[in-house]
Design a protein that fits this description.
The protein is an alpha/beta fold. The protein contains three helices and seven strands, in the order βαβαββββαβ. This is DNA polymerase III subunit chi.
């Protein structure tokens, strides 16, 4: 069963996702990030600049190198190149999340993000998934 971790009250969700992806990459786990195309472009830019001495190799899912790249940015999960870690930056439950060993839900502190995060939390809980919560302070 997929392990699901909620990271809530993160403030800047993209910066937090960069740090989370760095940690996942350093642990040797491939990851897929799911979000809308505009958010993926913003994350792509931030991954290049957030820690100049700690590059996180990444590419868009449409890239010919996606299968060989540790972090893949995708707007849908059709044809995802690996199924170890999924980072959800979207507002909805990912349709194929159960294919992944681990799902990391990143929830910002904006009201609409909190509402969407609560709905996703209820969805997983009501289906019997064990949920881990990591609430950020400040």
């Amino acid at each position: 069963m997929t392990r699901i971790d909620f990271h809530t009250n993160v403030g800047d969700a993209l910066l937090y996702a960069c740090r989370l992806l760095r940690k996942v990459y350093q642990a040797g786990h491939p990851a897929v990030v799911l979000a809308d195309p505009a958010r993926l472009r913003a994350l792509d830019g931030q991954l290049w600049t957030f820690a100049p001495l700690e590059f996180v190799p990444h590419c868009m899912a449409q890239s010919a190198l996606a299968a060989e790249t540790p972090v893949v940015l995708a707007s849908d999960l059709e044809g995802a190149p690996h199924y170890q870690v999924l980072v959800n930056l979207g507002a909805h439950v990912p349709p194929q999340f159960a294919r992944f060993e681990r799902l990391l839900e990143v929830v910002g502190n904006a009201p609409e993000e909190l509402t969407a995060g609560r709905e996703r939390y209820r969805f997983y809980r009501d289906r019997g998934y064990a949920l881990n919560n990591y609430r950020q302070e400040g």
